[in-house]
Amino acid sequence: MHKMHPGFSFLQLVIVIAIMAIVGLVVVPNVSKRVPLAQRKEFHESLNALARQAWTRALQTGHVHKILFNLKERTVKLEEQVIAMDRDGKPVFAPVPLSFFAKHYQWQEHLEIKQFYVEGVDEVGKNNPDNTMEDIWFFIVPEGMAQEVIINLLDNRDTHYSLDGQEVSLVLNPFRVQFQMYEEFKNPETV
Predict the structure, then answer these.
(1) Using one digit for the tens of pLDDT, what is the confidence trace for 24-65?
(2) Residue of 10 and 124 predicted with greater confidence
(3) Which 3 state secondary structure label does DSSP give 131?
(4) I need a labelling partner for 83 at 20 to 30 A (CA). Which of 34, 148, 153, 189 fits?
(5) Is the dihedral of CA 91, 97, 100, 106 positive or negative?
(6) Which letter does DSSP use for residue 146 in this model?
(7) 8 C-beta neighbours (distance < 10 Å), count
(8) Would 22 be classed as within a structural domain?
(9) pLDDT higher at 22 or 180
(10) Tell me, what CATH number does 131's domain have?
(11) Integer distance in angstroms from the first to the last C-alpha of the chain?
(12) β-pairing verdict for 105-106 and 149-155
């Protein structure tokens, strides 16, 4: 008579471990490829939310709004033109308190802005060969339109197609004030 012992046999354990290893080999690379894409989509959606907020506020208040990118700190924030002018007669902008953004939005380090076209001029490359520029902005006017903007960025974490990273372009529709995302760099001639 053989006594039955509860538990798994060695063969059963080996089979379960082999199945888990196979599943891990298939699932982990697919998940790791999706993380950079999800972070790019988060950046895209956050910019669109900020642009929509600026568009709405510009229509309501009748004031020009500025979406300000700080390249050094990797932040984006919304500012509104106030009535006052500075000593040079230039308009003064003040930060807009937003309910869904703390003070600003900070994008991931692996998203590197390579070109930033505003009205056809690359503000990153313009007279700036060493890329030391910090602030770039574009305006949304009270009539509900924005300047033409193209942001080309490189996702250094997504090296699936290129060792340098995935090229991404965000193109602002000046009439709808919404960004469209493309998987290749764009410039004013190709849009």
Answers:
(1) 777 766 665 667 788 889 999 999 999 999 999 999 999 999
(2) 124
(3) coil
(4) 148
(5) positive
(6) B
(7) 10
(8) no
(9) 180
(10) 3.55.40.10
(11) 82
(12) unpaired
Calpha distance 180→169 (Å, rounded): 8
Tell me if 191 is assigned to some domain.
Answer: no
Q: d(Cα 96, Cα 50) in Å, to the nearest integer?
A: 11
The identity of residue 79, as a single letter, is: E
Contacts for 94-98 with beta carbons within 8 Å, 24 or more apart? 96/53, 96/54, 96/57, 96/65, 98/50, 98/53
Q: How many structural domains does the chain have?
A: 1
pLDDT recorded at residue 70 = 93
Helix or strand holding residue 114 (H, E):
strand 111-118
Q: Tell me, what DSSP letter sits at residue 8?
A: -
DSSP at 102: S
Residue 99 lies in a domain: yes
What letter would DSSP give residue 115?
Answer: E
Residue 173's DSSP bridge partners are 178
Residue 29 identity: P
Owner of token pair 């308190």: 97
- Domain residues for the domain of 57 are 34-182
